[in-house]
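Appendix B, Record 12. Input sequence as logged:
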Amino acid sequence: EVQLVESGGGLVQAGGSLRLSCAASGFTFDDYVIAWFRQAPGKEREGVSYISGNDGSTYYADSVKGRFTISSDKVKNMVYLQMHGLKAEDTAVYYCAADRLPQGIIRMVVPGASLQYEHWGQGTQVTVSP
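Logged structural output:
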């Protein structure tokens, strides 16, 4: 059974940092893309970043480029999202998700397709105070 469990969310002041963690189990890491999405109240779910399990290639949404860094630890089956320079508009529930290669890469960049990601975690709240 595939499981994705997020942790590390919380309340932080603008300009601060947080590191989100995603513990992945039940699938072969190398065959999947692991991604972070977020959803703010009243807004659509937004793709934030992904890392490819086979070659470590990454993607970032323009809104987080230069501030967020995604990484993975294949030994521990963990994916991390290091967030710096947090802004009030980063406030959202952050979800870890997994999808098979290569469609996970395509689904991240095609509008509306990311909701087809195969597996989702329960989400972790990130709140950035102004």
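The first helix runs from residue 103 to 109.
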